[in-house]
Amino acid sequence: MTDYLYELLVPHFKEDLPKESYPSVHDSTTVEYLSHLTTLQLDYLGDAEPKSLAQASHSILLSLQSLSTKSSKSIIASADHLNNLKRELSALASDTGLVREEVLALDKAAVSFSERYSRNGENDVLDRRKRALLMYRNVDRLSDILDLPTLLSSAISSSNTQGASGNTNYASALDLHAHVKRLHLLHQDSKLLKSIYNQAEDAMREMTSNLIMSLRGQGIKLAAAMRTIGWLRRIAPDLAGSHSDEGSLGALFLVCRLANLVSMLEALDPLRELADQETIRRLANKDDVINGNAWSGGQQTERYLKRYIEIFREQSFAIISMFKSIFPSAETASSDDLGIHFKSLELKTIAPVHAPIKDDPLLPLPSALATFPIHLVELLTEILKQYMPNVRDKASRESLLTQVLYCAGSLGRLGADFGMILASLENDDSDDPEGDEPPEWVAVMKKHRILASRLELLSGTFSGQNKVASSSISAASKLRSP
Fold it and tell me: Over the stretch 100-111, which tens digit does the pLDDT of each residue have?
């Protein structure tokens, strides 16, 4: 129905209106209006409908006029934008093509970048970044490792300033050095750890020097010496030898203590200078002494020798006893080595059965203690031979020789008695050149033995009295007990 009605109305459209502007029969508005016309009566279509359409057209015109008045600027701008829209759309199309081409190039670059910097491949830049990231993550550990040489040096220097109270710092320094050494063994290819290890070794060499200097100090006690030797065993195991052998530490200990003894004896140089002056005067008056004139000098020499022998006795006994306490295994070795010295006296000794036979004739090396007492005795003998001729007073000479015998007895308790050196101290300028009287050292030794026997007798009597008293006390206590 609407189609037939539309065909009836087409001839009545305006003639100046192009056909392209005709409303379409399929338009919903057109179909709705044609359907509305079919519902109206014929009289209404002839009179009321044209008026209604004219009124609607007039109201629409007024609305358009009002709208154009209010929105003239927006309409003009919209018209301008509409005129530029075509040009902008063409530019957008060309830019879209360029973007499409650039996206393809970007995709190729992204694929090339992913292939170049892939984790599965090898790349120097990635390796540097990985190392930098790893260093950043472990910066605290690296800082602690770099501080190890400084901590080690601080521990060693603080131990030197604190003295005996710095034992804990020495132990901490040894622990730090062991930690650095362990790190160096685990990462031998690291240049950083190698540099730190070299610095730690320098610090440990400084600590070794300090420990050796402490062995040369005066008034060192047995406990301190044992701790120092223990630290040296840990620092320089190549010097320590095995657990049953003193190694080179025994010789080092003796050399250090000998240096301390020599320094203490050198402190007597003012007295020695006075003794040398008396020696010069004695040699100048040698002819008068030979002719029978009495020599009245020797007092300064006596003072020097008394002080010298006293220091020698105290320090030599302390050195050897301390050595035997620190190196107990060296005592048996030194006793076996005494047979070597007895061969020079043409004495027959039986070699121990357990002595191993080795290819090297120089092994095993003798203990350092085997020859150390001989060296000490040589030092004392040289001084006595040089200065004893200055002392001519009989009482003074006997006093000095008795002091030497006490010194020899002190070392004799440690197996180094040298009392027979008195025979080598016979004075060439004696008052009895014909030799009618017995040698001076014989009388001195007799007096010394008599005095020693009396002391032993007194000590035995005192110990016997103590035993009797203790036995009587125990018997009385038994009687009182029920």
Answer: 989 999 998 988
In 51-160, at which residue ranges do the beta strands (DSSP E only) sit? none
In a 10 Å sphere around its CB, with 0-12 CB exposed, 13-18 middle and 19+ buried, how is residue 407 labelled?
A: buried
Give the start-end residues of each E strand in 160-265.
none
Question: 235 or 291, which is more confident?
Answer: 235
Alpha carbons within 13 angstroms on the beta-carbon side of residue 337 total 19
Give per-residue pLDDT as tens, 38-81. 777 777 777 787 788 888 888 988 888 888 788 888 888 888 88
Tokens of 40: 């109206």
Count CA atoms closer than 13 A to 464's CA, side-chain side. Answer: 6
Place of tokens 């009597």: 461
Amino acid at residue number 8: L
| Tokens of residue 395, six digits | 């009482």
Contact indicator for 372, 261 with CB cutoff of 8 Å: no
Dihedral angle at the C-alpha atoms of 26, 30, 33, 39, nearest 10 degrees? -30
pLDDT value at position 341? 45
User: What DSSP string describes 302-313?
Assistant: HHHHHHHHHHHH
What are the tokens at 114?
């992913």
Cα–Cα distance for residue pair 288/283, rounded to 1 Å: 10
Distance CA 192, CA 199 (A): 11
Please compute the mean of the pLDDT values over residues 367-376 and round it to a whole number. Answer: 84
The pLDDT tens digits of the residues spanning 398-422 come to 888 888 888 888 888 888 777 777 7
Q: Which residues contact 408 (CB under 8 A, 6 or more apart)?
A: 417, 418, 419, 421
Are 443 and 453 within 8 A, CB to CB? no
Cis, bond preceding 389 (omega within 30 deg of 0): no
Whole-angstrom distance, CA of residue 158 vs CA of residue 357: 49
Per-residue burial over 454-473, b if 16 or more Cβ lie within 10 Å, else e, is eeeeeeeeeeeeeeeeeeee
Place of tokens 């006893």: 321
Percent of the chain with pLDDT over 90: 9
Give the predicted TM-score (pTM) of the model: 0.61
CB atoms < 10 A from the CB of 172, how many?
Answer: 18
Tell me how far apart the alpha carbons of residues 404 and 420 are, in angstroms, rounded to a whole number.
Answer: 10
How many alpha carbons lie under 13 Å from residue 429 in its C-beta half-sphere? 21
Specify the length of the chain in residues.
482
Answer yes or no: are the C-beta atoms of 373 and 416 closer than 8 Å.
yes
In this predicted model, what pLDDT tens digit does every residue of 134-159 receive, in sequence order? 888 988 988 888 898 898 888 888 87
